[in-house]
Predict the structure.
Amino acid sequence: GRSKLTQISGLRPGWSLIGFACAAAPGLFPLAVSSAPGRTVTDRDSTLPPCNACKPGESLPFDITMAFQPIVDARARTVFAYEALVRGVAGEPAEAILSQVNPDNRYAYDQTCRRTAVALAARLQMPCFVSINFLPNAVYQAATCIRATLEAARQHGFPTSRLIFEVTENEELVDKEHLKGIIREYRRQGFKTAIDDFGAGYAGLNLLAEFQPDIIKLDMALVRGIDADPVRQAIVRGILGVCAALHIEVIAEGVQTHEELLLLDGMGIRLFQGYLFARPGFESLPEVTWPELP
């Protein structure tokens, strides 16, 4: 259901989009931190040495907010997650925001998205996990660049045990060793990790061979029309087999038709996102439509 853009200043449109993963789906492979239940920001976290490259306190020269789209368990009929999609404060689309992002303000943009997501989660009193789609090229030193996110969580009273970090690697400019270092540090701190837009660009099996996340989100290009496309069906079955062997949860993005849902449900996928269920709601949680399943 999300619009996909070409690269803008090294960004994919899905990057720095935030998702809120709700805890109301028992028995599912966790989409959120489980290794550090109840963890909150500690004094040790808040006294991490600053990263000089991160330019602490730098402000973004334009304002942003979020629209929310649910990720659902279609069989349990529960909202499992909300993904926050960047918008302008007057409702401007993601394209209008991303066109203003460049190498000079990329770090401020990434950090502002994180802080905005945490603040909205607290304001809406979400009993949920927040999943942050981060920019690898905006992380200089993983252990210290996380400071602003942890401080925002403490300021707004949002538990850091609900933080997940997603990455889309769609550009060759991302240093794989740098990305692996970020993932190692986030895992060391007890966070879960995910690969977004899996199957698009460089976010494929080559990336999965480098590190194994807790979650992958199938790119909507693989989902679109899959009910009538044996080739896409074969590819997705292969991905599901690999993920089952590696104990990785799968989310199908961009589901728009009942026929797509039935096919993917029959393959064993439980978590879905797309216009079939709800369009994004501007600073709100949209009502979900629940299609019938056999």
Observations:
- The chain is about 30% helix and 20% strand.
- Residues 131 and 226 are 27 Å apart (CA to CA).
- The two ends are 24 Å apart (CA to CA).
- The mean pLDDT is 78.
